[in-house]
Amino acid sequence: MKFFADTADIDAIRDLSEAGLLDGVTTNPSLIMKSGRDIWEVTKEICDIVDGPVSAETVSLDVDGMVAEGRKLAKIADNIAVKVPLTLNGLKACKLLRGEGHMVNVTLCFSANQALLAAKAGATFISPFIGRLDDINMDGMELIQDIRTIYDNYGFETQILAASVRSVNHITEAARIGADVVTAPPAVLQKMADHPLTDKGLDAFLADWKKTGQSIL
Ligand code: E4P
Question: Residue 148 C-alpha to ligand 1 middle, in angstroms?
């Protein structure tokens, strides 16, 4: 499973990247706003840190606008994945941008049928939003499972990018189902390393080590 960081926070991206934990990054207009940075500057900086796909989102609603924005975003670096929304226009833009050789991440997916259409349009990634479905009392993980089944039934190569991840349990479940990628806020990715028994065990080992009076270095 690949890990993408869902953020435009350069320090967090650098930290995860140095730990060898990062396969890519996803951004969206809200995350760019939160960073307080210029989209071109911050996206270029992210692409310089991370070798894998970096999603940058279009904001037009018409096909021509999305394609023009996608082409411009793709010029930032070779590892840009153009993000388009899951609308009919977004699917048309996806097909055109894929035809030009760009990676495309189709975002804001909330149903298996939408995911099926994105695969037909040749999307590189489909982004089903788990947390936002859970927020309205629906089952985000059931959607990941449905998309996995459908893509496997027909051999679609579109990668399932589990998005809108809110907890470490979301990551475990998405991995169990076989999502290709998970994108999560840096804090959630970091929490994957935590376990109270690890902390307790480490405390006990260090206390015993102190009693030996020895040193390693
Ligand atoms: C990823 O590409 C999405 O933009 C992101 O995961 C949305 O997450 P949110 O629902 O927490 O805003």
Answer: 20
How confident is the model over 73-100, as pLDDT tens digits?
Answer: 999 999 999 999 999 999 999 999 999 9
Which of the residues are catalytic? 83
Model pTM?
0.97
Residue closest via CA to ligand 1's atom 5 equals 164
Q: Ligand 1: does its nearest atom lie under 6 Å from the Cβ of 114?
A: no
Residue of the nearest CA to atom 12 in ligand 1? 164
Whole-number pLDDT of residue 143: 98
- Which domains, and CATH codes, for the chain? 2-212 (3.20.20.70)
3-class secondary structure for 147-209? Answer: HHHHHHHHCCCCEEEEECCCCHHHHHHHHHHCCCEEEECHHHHHHCCCCHHHHHHHHHHHHHH
* Residue of 46, 164, 167, 181 with the most ligand 1 atoms within 8 Å of its CB, for mutation: 164
Predicted ipTM beyond 0.85 = yes
CA of 132 relative to ligand 1 center, distance in Å: 8
Do residues 39 and 55 touch, judged by C-beta distance below 8 A? no
Q: Which pLDDT score is estimated for 94?
A: 98
Confidence of residue 156 (pLDDT cuts 50, 70, 90): very high
